[in-house]
Amino acid sequence: MDREHKSAVVGESRIHETDTGSVEVQVSLLTRRIAELSGHFKVHQHDHAGRRGLMRLVGERRRLLQYLSREDVGRYRTLVARLGLRK
């Protein structure tokens, strides 16, 4: 992900003007990287080392979402709805 795409994702998901590290921003960035890697694995099925990295990103996103659901259920629900993570 290049700098322009990253700043666009941060701009969409930040809570206040100087927010760059909130849970919402981190989960949005991880979701973007997971989507990019998922497309990569449709072409490169045998990239098992990369798939391990993808599983690590998915686990990190899951832990952040669990933290947010424990701390503030309202923020969790709006984030999940905005990103379309849960059905």
Write a concise synopsis of the structure shown.
The chain is mainly alpha-helical.
Could you explain how this protein is built, in words?
The chain has 87 residues and is mainly alpha-helical. It is globular and about 40 Å long. The longest helix is centred in the last third of the chain and has 24 residues, at 48-71. It has 4 helices and no strands. α2 (23-43) packs antiparallel against α3 and α3 packs antiparallel against α4 (73-83).
Tags for this model:
87 residues, mainly alpha
SSE map:
Blueprint: H1 3-13, H2 23-43, H3 48-71, H4 73-83
Helix pairs in contact: 1-2, 2-3, 3-4
- Span between N and C termini? 26 Å
Computed over alpha carbons, the radius of gyration is: 14 Å
Helicity, in percent? Answer: over 70%
What does the main sheet amount to?
Answer: none
* Derived structural class: mainly alpha
Q: Uncertain spans, ≥5 residues at pLDDT below 50?
A: none
What's the count of strands?
0
The number of helices is 4
Proportion of β residues?
under 5%
The gross shape turns out to be: globular
Oligomer: single chain
SSE order in H/E notation? HHHH
Mean pLDDT: 93
